[in-house]
Amino acid sequence: MVNKIMRSLLVILGMILGQQAMYYAIRLIPGLEITPVFAIISYIIGALIGGLVLFMISPKIIKKGKQSTYRMEKNLEKMSINEIVFGVLGLIVGLVIASLVSFPINNVPIPWIGNIISFILYIILGYLGYSLATKKKDELLNLSTLFKKHAKENKEIKQGKEEYGIAKILDTSVIIDGRIFDICKTGFIEGPLIIPHFVLEELRHIADSSDSLKRNRGRRGLDILNKIQKELSILVKISEKDFSDVMEVDVKLLKLAQYFNGKVVTNDYNLNKVAEFQGVEVLNINELANAVKPVVLPGEEMEVQVIKDGKESGQGIAYLDDGTMIVVENGKKHVGETIEVIVTSVLQTAAGRMIFSRRKESERVNHKVS
């Protein structure tokens, strides 16, 4: 019964196509006079030919159609729901694109040409949409998950910004340095703290280095991160945001700071300067350390241990407990001694502070350091 219905429909389709083909065919013959009777007879002949042709080949068409339907059914059974959904969506997108492209093509003045090209476009683009969507379903799912993750991350960071303050993006140098943990512990830095994924990757590579010094630095950085996450009450987030078109980690940091409208926390002097040039706010731990050092004014007296020669002739070098270098005028001859000095001047730079001094003249008796 189904075969008879299908065959009848194919015959009707053949008659319609035959009539249409004859309609255009008789108009392509130059000089042919088309009377109403001639046109009707031509249409009937075309319809009969088209119907007869489809009647003869319809069994093969129906057989092929059933085979194709069976194969399609088996393929669909093997496909997951995700593949079917993405396949349908891809097909719809392909057909929509084909529809948009077909608008100017349908205006081609040559009969049938525009329709034929449009039909071919629908088939090709529809198939491409379906094929690409099913083959790339995993990537599309990952992309969807990534968008959701970024949206959630941005929401959390915005909430953190409202509750805790401006986001602070940590770079590799400041994590390895470790002082950021102590600063956060004191409560002087408000969060959220953002640890970029690419910084974690850089730390991991350093921790896996064959160089023992680099390896220890990398492992120290990872230990500091674990301490920050476990021991501090401040909000800490691992950002998966990446910039695949950028290779330099420093540039990625600045872009991430702009993305979150936050500040970069670093010890890197060069990164500090580049960030200032690009209008990104930076918190430099070294500058903070210099700012909280005790203020030393010219004329103050202090007791120091001269430990080595200076660069200039006759100079001696000493250090305060916080690491500040003290240059002692004519202190070379006092290397290994603890003497009293008077501060003559203080040089403050972004890299640190340097104190210049001279020996206190009233000091006559110095004691050797055992």
Automatic annotation (TrEMBL):
The keyword Transmembrane helix applies. The chain crosses the membrane at residues 37-58, 79-103, 109-130. CDD domains: PIN_YacL-like (cd09877). Keywords: Hydrolase, Magnesium, Membrane, Nuclease, Transmembrane, Transmembrane helix. Its cofactor is Mg(2+). Residues 295-356 form the TRAM domain. One of its GO terms (molecular function) is hydrolase activity. The keyword Nuclease applies. It holds the Pfam family PIN. This is Uncharacterized conserved protein YacL, contains PIN and TRAM domains. The lineage of its organism: Bacteria, Bacillati, Bacillota, Clostridia, Eubacteriales.
